[in-house]
Write a structure and sequence with these properties.
Length: 561
């Protein structure tokens, strides 16, 4: 796995698409960088760009983008609804995979130094990259915004971390940092009142509102023993929020930054704002996601709303995401396409050779002259079909009339079945990949003694590795029989034959994968490893056969009444 960093620069231009395009062009020109999302906002006059790559490439692309923005955006003429103090306002680095926050901080500071030294733009390091506690907060770094920079830069307390302490009137300043995944999220209200929107924002955001005597809007501020205003905390931890009016849509919004979605997930923030809005006679009409969102955040939201409806959560991810989008109203202001907004969907290889094929395409490719896909991939796919049938029976049982009190029991079974068929689907392609690696080993040169030895070792290693795939197919397909048998015993009686067919598929997957292990074992010289593997496979094959017989007998007894 490569080290990957996500970068989410915010540029102070959201109206001139040609300017935005020139900035994103320099990002995409950097080798190894993948541009994930460009999200311009007219009212905020701000564009959020998301790209990902290995650390050195991300530093290079971010620098090029900041440089280009400084050439194209003149802050002397910038107006917008969102707080800002620079042409590139903020540029956070987010660790994605195989990299620690400490390492991410070092790359963020490397970028900050280069921007300050080479572009003469004042740079403040914030969040995890901050050099002092008060600069961890982006709001503190940006306080006073662009208009307040000339005075701010004169203060010793606000000397930039990098770059000159002189006002760059064209480019302003930039905040460069490292943080965990942050979700920028706006909730739409059926009002145009910024005062009411702000009142709701103060209710929910972590910092809450300043406490006042009597009238909470105009009353005298209450100070503590140190002369600091006393604050009434909001209801949501790790949430920043303000209210504003979006002329483009003619509505007020609660604009939120969810800075730790493990503490306050999207759906929790949404429901809390709904409650607080209702207290004021206001209705939430939908919401708006800015930039990207992790897959799990949408799955958690969809699962939350399904559970509120007492519906099974063991349904395919795409259906769970559809429920999340509709429940949160993410498509109210513009179409919401998960393929373009979910970070994992953009990062993963969408061209899986087998599992993305149609049924007929898979069949024709299997029947072709190519040796792969072969019995191993077909066994895994048959197992996935069996597991999906067990899952289907669980989902149908969860919504059977008169069984309302048992929805959660069957939902739990459906979740187990879903994991089984998803794992087996992954093994469909992994089996073909393992076969191809064995074939590659056979193609190695075998002229010299050293080459013959290396080729032999490579074949042995690749074959042993390839045998692990059918063993996992056996294990997973057998495990799926837990769900299938439970559904045959206690599931919706109208679907009893589906459970029976599912068991036959699971048994076929186990037996088919066992044959793959046997054929691969023939040429292996490591007898000890092979003995252990064959022993486990034989036991699984025997157990699956007996279990299938038991399930088939149960199905037939029930069918005969």
């Amino acid at each position: 796995m490569k080290q990957l960093i996500e970068c989410v620069p915010n540029f102070s231009e959201g109206r001139d698409l040609s300017v935005i395009k020139q900035i994103t062009d320099v990002i995409e020109a950097v080798s190894g960088i993948r541009l994930l999302n460009v999200d311009p906002g007219y009212a905020t006059n701000r564009t959020v760009v998301t790209f990902v790559g290995e650390p050195a490439q991300v530093v290079k692309a971010a620098f090029m983008a900041i440089q280009r923005a400084s050439e194209l955006i003149d802050m002397r003429h910038h107006k917008g609804e969102h707080p800002r103090f620079g042409a590139t306002d903020v540029c956070p680095f987010v660790p994605v995979s195989e990299i620690t926050m400490a390492e991410t901080v070092s790359f963020a500071r490397l970028l900050a130094k280069r921007v300050g030294d080479e572009l003469s733009i004042p740079v403040y390091c914030y969040e995890s990259a901050a050099y002092e506690q008060k600069r961890e907060s982006l709001a503190n770094c940006r306080a006073g915004e662009y208009e307040g920079l000339p005075e701010k830069l004169k203060s010793a307390d606000w000397k930039p971390d990098f770059g000159p302490s002189m006002f760059n009137e064209r480019s302003g300043a930039v905040a460069i940092g490292a943080r965990n995944f942050l979700i920028a999220y706006n909730i739409n209200l059926n009002t145009s009142s910024v005062r009411l929107a702000n009142s709701i924002a103060f209710d929910v955001r972590e910092t809450g509102r300043i406490q006042r005597e009597g009238d909470r809007v105009n009353g005298k501020i209450i100070n503590d023993a140190f002369g600091e205003p006393v604050r009434i905390p909001g209801t949501l931890k790790k949430v920043r929020a303000i209210g504003w009016f979006i002329k483009e849509y003619g509505i007020a919004q609660i604009s939120m930054n969810l800075i730790d979605i493990t503490t306050t997930p999207v759906h929790v923030a949404f429901d809390e704002v709904c409650e607080r809005a209702r207290d004021r006679g206001i209705r939430v009409t939908g919401s708006e996601l800015i930039g990207m969102i992790p897959l799990q955040a949408l799955l958690d939201a969809g699962t939350y709303f399904l559970r509120k409806q007492h519906r099974s959560v063991g349904i395919p991810d795409r259906e769970i995401i559809r429920i999340a989008v509709k429940s949160l109203g993410l498509d109210e202001l513009a179409p919401f396409d998960p393929e373009k907004r979910v970070i994992e969907y953009l990062l993963e290889n969408r061209i899986n050779p087998l599992i993305n094929l149609s049924l007929s395409e898979f069949l024709h490719q299997t029947a072709s002259e190519s040796a792969a896909p072969g019995g191993g991939s077909v066994a895994a796919y048959v197992g996935a079909l069996g597991a999906s049938l067990g899952t289907m029976v669980a989902n149908l049982s969860a919504q059977k009339r008169g069984w309302d009190c048992r929805w959660e029991e069957f939902s739990d079974w459906a979740l187990k079945g879903k994991k089984n068929y998803e794992d087996l689907l992954t093994l469909v392609d992994q089996d073909t990949g393992a076969f191809n690696r064995v074939m590659e080993a056979f193609q190695l040169p075998k002229v010299t003694t050293e080459e013959v030895s290396a080729r032999r070792d490579a074949i042995q290693s690749a074959t042993l590795s390839a045998m692990d795939i059918p063993l996992r197919v056996m294990q997973t397909a057998y495990e799926s029989m837990d769900v299938i048998e439970a559904m045959a015993e206690a599931g919706n009686p109208n679907s009893i034959t589906d459970a029976g067919v599912g068991a036959l598929c699971a048994w076929s997957a186990v037996s088919g994968a066992y044959l793959n292990i046997l054929v691969n074992a023939i040429g292996i010289t490591d007898k000890e490893s092979i003995a252990r593997l064959l022993n486990e496979a034989e036991q699984l094959e025997s157990l699956a056969s007996k279990r299938n017989t038991r399930i088939q007998n149960l199905v037939r007894i029930k069918l005969k009444g």
